Amino acid sequence: MINCPFREHRLYIEFIKKNSKGSPVTELNDHYSQHLNYNQLIQQVADSFPEGPTCFDLAPLDQLHIGGIKASKQLLEHIKPYSHPRVLDVGAGLGGLLRLAASEQEIDGVALDFTHAFSQLNQALNLLSGSECISVVSGDAQLLPFASDYFDCVIFQHSLLNIPKPSEALKEALRVLKPGGRIVCHEVIKGQNPEAIEFPVPWAARAELSFLHCTQDIRRQIESAGFEISSCDDWTEQALMWRARQTGKEQSGQARSGLSPAAVLGNQFATMGKNVHQALQNGAIGIIELAAQKPQSR
Ligand SMILES: C[S@@+](CC[C@H](N)C(=O)[O-])C[C@H]1O[C@@H](n2cnc3c(N)ncnc32)[C@H](O)[C@@H]1O
């Protein structure tokens, strides 16, 4: 079962609204859930993959970030040094990252997202794909429902971009990590030419829902939370090449199962993809991958 203490979705939203420290909860929930048709999607996945879907089968649906499953594979290199790590994915969406991690190594995974409809679908996809080692929790990154010093690794993949003040979420990440544990961020950042971005984009239908920060700002916030940064790489070039390939695939309708981000984000996804492509090209946005450690002693 999804670990959500509220039987009614309305009560969960009220709780999250009261405690979410400035996140535009209702608008974000609507943005991510208004086009989802749970029954239809589950049926479609079950019919297309009677043996159970692989991570690659689900990727057009559940890797909701720039760079797709290839970027996730690269990101997961950061958990490889741990044996049977406890991994928390914050803003997990439909959970593609942790299913991929579980297909590559033994993990204890927790996927947390505040869009409850995503958590429900994520849980169903875990069952269909046999990923029982992953728990799904609905909650807010800024108020994590976990004990301190528990996880080996906390991952933010395109989720800080929806959080007005990432410092609260970063402090919480530090708290729940074991000493020496690692935070990994794969995020969209504000580029040199931020005003050139056009909306809608996949993470926001309008400018007021998008919270991008420049690399320096993110670094500063991560360090002020108490982390020591070990690497920060610019992935913008490879993201641009990936987006160009995706545009080609989307136009030729290549996905065998018919699964696509449009099943989550609606018909506007074509415009969102085009806007992301342009924003990467004209320097409105960039992509970084950053890793940092919680110090052994504080
Ligand atoms: C662009 S999606 C990325 C999903 C997933 N990480 C991926 O890469 O496929 C951003 C996700 O962050 C979630 N999110 C936004 N703000 C959040 C918050 N304060 N706490 C938890 N999740 C949040 C949204 O509900 C959404 O699922």
From TrEMBL:
Keywords: Methyltransferase, Transferase. InterPro entries: Methyltransf_11, SAM-dependent_MTases_sf. This is Methyltransferase domain-containing protein. It comes from the Bacteria. Transmembrane segments: none annotated. GO terms for biological process: methylation. Residues 88-185 form the Methyltransferase type domain. It comes from Neptunomonas marina.
